[in-house]
Amino acid sequence: MIISKFSQYLLLLVIFFTLSRCASKKSIDEVNQKLKNCSMLLNEKNSNQEYSIGKVDSLLKINMLLETQNKLVANEMLSMQKSIQDKNATIHDLHEIYSELEYSKNEMESNYERGQQLINSLKEETFQQEQLFDSMISKGEVDPINYSLNEGRLAFHCPKQMDYLESYSVIGLIADVISNDEAKSILINKIVELDEAVDVNKLKNDSILVREINYYNLIELELDEASNKSFEIRKMHSSNKQKVNPSMEGWHWEVKPIDPEPNQKLVLKVFYYDENDVRNYSLSKAYNIKVKIRSYRFLTNLKTHFIENTEWAMGTIILPFLTFLFGRYDRNKKKKST
Asked: What CA–CA distance (Å, rounded) separates 311 from 242?
């Protein structure tokens, strides 16, 4: 009985032990399975973490690229803003130029109107003079113009050397003579009448223009400067257009060089009027004038130029000269100290 109970207990113990082993094995398997699951979860989390890190790196790189692009865009915006400011300044300058042109246009229109009024006034005056002249002819007070072709000599003298800002006489006349020497002699006498202090011998040796010329009764001489503002030309005779006769007035200009440029030019132009009172070109002659500046004139002009161009004088002459003097003084001082 005792053995039977012992066997029963032993059997129960074996069964319990067997069951315990089975339970333990099952628990171990479950634990292993859980460990495997945990390992898989950890691997998955590590993989996700690595993916997230890679994604963060990509985002950081994208952010850096965006910052670079933003800087480039900002620089481009600054450049565009500066370009717009420059264009606005240019537009402003163009508006100012346009305003000046508008003002000049208005001035020109005003001058044109005044010129037209002056032309109309001159036409009216000429018409009245022609009527008066015709009336005088009809009354026998003057002789009618005989429009027959005549021959004569044009004699003209212009100094080829002039002093700056000094006045000189330029003389022209028509001589009804055959010889060039006669025409030249008549011209010299005319010059002496105007200026008794003139050197006659110098005049005889000077170049005097003598030309054979065909004309009717009316002839015109003009004296012009080749370039603007080179000479001041003052007409001393009453009219450029004159009737040729022994007592004719002739042509006399007072000419003054007002440009210190040494090589200047005057141009003589001769015209005649035909039987229809139409102006026709006859000849022209260019005179090369050598302009000289006297010493006192040079100093006066230099002073005037300095006063009128202070900035140019300071930058071009005075400052470099002072720099040269200071450098020389500094070098001498260093030599003495050594």
From this structure: 51
Residue 166 lies in a domain: yes
- Residue carrying structure tokens 């009316």: 218
Q: Is 14 a member of any domain? A: no
Of the three residues 144, 178, 209, the one that is the final residue of a domain is: 144
Tokens encoding 89? 């300044």
Residues 61 and 115 in one domain: yes
Structure tokens at 17: 């032990």
User: Computed over its alpha carbons, how large is the radius of gyration of the chain?
Assistant: 56
pLDDT digit string, tens, across residues 181-202? 898 999 989 988 888 888 888 8
Amino acid at 248: M
Q: What is the pTM of this model?
A: 0.47
Query: Which domain covers residue 112, as residue numbers?
Result: 28-144
Cα separation, 310 vs 102, whole angstroms:
32
Q: Considering the domain boundaries, does residue 72 fall inside one?
A: yes
Locate tokens 């500066």: which residue? 82
Tens digits of per-residue pLDDT, 26-44? 566 675 676 677 667 767 7
Residue type, 100: E
Classify burial at 117, counting beta carbons within 10 Å of its beta carbon; exposed 0-12, middle 13-18, buried 19 or more. exposed
